[in-house]
Structures are given as C-alpha cells and as structure tokens.
Amino acid sequence: MTTTLTGDQMGRINIVLADDVERKLRIAIATSGGKKGDLSDSIEQAILEWLQKDDRETKKATKR
C-alpha cells in the first residue's frame, strides 16, 4: 500500500548540516524576527526552489 502526502499532511526528513551552516541559518532566522516553524519553512522553501531549478535544467537538457 502506498501513502501519498497531500497538502495537509507533513513528511519528516532528518538532515545533517555543517555546524557553520546551521548557525548561520538560525542567526538569519532569529534576526528576521523568527517564530516557531520558520526553520522548517525556510528549508522547505529552499527545497522547492531547488526542485524548480532542477526541473528547468532537466527540461532544457531534454530539448537538446
């Protein structure tokens, strides 16, 4: 049985970041008035942007 996540469900991914990357991210969020959930939101946004970029590059490569 396959479970599909919809917009109201959340998946969980554990990641490992270099200490300096984590520190810079947390400082950036805190200095911009960070609130609960902003860390997850910023990582989700970065992943979505990466996926869009990857999709554009894939489409470009297949046109050649």
Order of helices and strands: HH
The helix content, as a percent range, equals: 55-70%
Gross morphology is extended
- Calculate the terminal CA-CA distance, rounded to whole Å: 38 Å
Strand content: under 5%
User: How many H/I helices?
Assistant: 2
Mean pLDDT: 87
Low-confidence stretches: none
Characterize the largest beta sheet: strand count, sense, and whether it forms a barrel.
none
Q: What oligomeric state do these chains adopt? A: single chain
Please report the total strand number as a whole number. 0
Class of secondary structure makeup: mainly alpha
Task: Give a structural overview.
With 64 residues, the chain is an all-alpha fold. The protein has a domain of 29 residues. 61% of the residues lie in helices and 0% in strands. It is extended and about 45 Å long. The model has no long low-confidence stretch (mean pLDDT 87).
